[in-house]
Each structure stands twice: as structure tokens, then as C-alpha cells.
Amino acid sequence: MVFEEKMIMNGEPEDEEEEEEEEEDMVDPLETMRQKCEDTEHCVHARERLEHCETRVGSRSSTTEDCTEELFDFLHARDHCVSHKLFHSVK
User: Fold this and answer.
1) Please, what's the b/e burial string for 23-59 (b: 16 or more CB within 10 A of its CB; e: otherwise)?
2) Which of 17, 19, 53, 80 is the most buried (most CB within 10 A)?
3) How far is 34 from 27, CA to CA, in rounded Å?
4) What confidence tens digit (pLDDT) does each residue in 45-75 have?
5) CA distance 36 to 54
6) pLDDT, tens digit, for every residue of 17-27?
7) How far apart are CA 63 and CA 72, in angstroms?
8) How far, in Å, CA of 17 to CA of 36, rounded?
9) What is the DSSP letter of 67?
10) Alpha-carbon distance 88 to 43, whole Å?
11) 11/27 Cα distance (integer angstroms)
């Protein structure tokens, strides 16, 4: 019986915990690139405008204003930076 289990486990890690630890170390390169782009001047400016809007809207008790435009501006700036860096690294 032990011999059969060893044959089945051949080539696979014996401990499932070791396999899980290796998976936790993986980092999504897209998230890394997004974080780097968020530190660029244009993205910082767009994020400041978004935060200012959120503060303004949050300080009012009743308002119909939301920060959709500022959020889209920030996401557009960040994604533009990511796409620029991504396609230059592919060449």
C-alpha cells in the first residue's frame, strides 16, 4: 500500500503546505506596473483631484454630486501609463 502511494505521488510535492506557500509568493505583474504608474506625476495629480472631490462630497450631508469623472480620469491616466510601458516592453 505504501509503495502504491509513493507511485501515485511520484513527481508531486509530498506536503500540500509547501505547494501553497509557493503560490502565495506569486505577484501579479499588472498590479506591480499599476503601482509604479500611480507614482507618476500625471497620475498623482489625477489622484489628488479624486481625493479632493471625495473629501468635498463626503463633507456634505445631502448632495447629488459624485466623483465619477475624477475616478475615470485617474483610471484613464493610470491605464494609459500601464499600456505605454507594457507595449514598450513587448517590442
Assistant:
1) eeeeeeeeeebbeebbeeeebeebbebbeebeeeeee
2) 53
3) 12
4) 999 999 999 999 999 888 888 999 999 999 9
5) 23
6) 655 555 677 88
7) 20
8) 32
9) -
10) 19
11) 25
Residue 5 grid coordinates: 502511494
Which residue type, as a one-letter code, is found at position 47? Answer: R
CA dihedral 44, 69, 55, 58 (to 10 degrees): -150
Show contacts of 34-38: CB within 8 Å, 24+ apart: 34/78, 34/82, 36/85, 37/78, 37/81, 37/82, 37/85, 38/78
- Residue 10 is classified by DSSP as T
Instruction: Please state whether the predicted TM-score (pTM) of the whole model is above 0.70.
Output: no
Write the single-letter amino acid at 52: H
Q: Would you mind telling me the total number of residues written for the chain in this entry?
A: 91
